[in-house]
């Protein structure tokens, strides 16, 4: 069982959380009328191998959004924090 360290509630089972999406995507500027930028933001997703920043919603707990650094190969939770926190992803190893 995976446990996610919620910055508001402490360690909780991952069943209490709902995956929201990729935390590395940056929303295009609101004044920007560039359709390709919005299409990329809304529809294009990478399928990374290794450490990846994700957003999770603590839907059965405090209902806050949590930033999670998770290894997509092992599902190991490497770090967690608030959405505005800086969480540095370790450098990907060659061949991953």
Automatic annotation (TrEMBL):
Listed Pfam families: SoxD
Annotated InterPro entries: SoxD, SoxD_sf
Gene3D superfamilies: Folate-binding superfamily
Example GO biological process: tetrahydrofolate metabolic process
GO molecular function annotations of the record: sarcosine oxidase activity
Signal peptide range: none
Entry protein name: Sarcosine oxidase subunit delta
């Amino acid at each position: 069982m995976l446990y996610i360290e919620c910055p508001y509630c402490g360690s909780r089972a991952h069943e209490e959380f709902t995956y929201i999406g990729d935390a590395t995507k940056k929303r295009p500027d609101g004044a920007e009328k560039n359709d390709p930028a919005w299409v990329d933001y809304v529809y294009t997703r990478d399928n990374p191998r290794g450490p990846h920043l994700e957003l999770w919603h603590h839907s059965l707990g405090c209902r806050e959004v949590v930033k999670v650094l998770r290894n997509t190969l092992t599902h190991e939770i490497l770090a967690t924090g608030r959405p505005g926190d800086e969480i540095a992803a370790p450098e990907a190893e060659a061949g991953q």
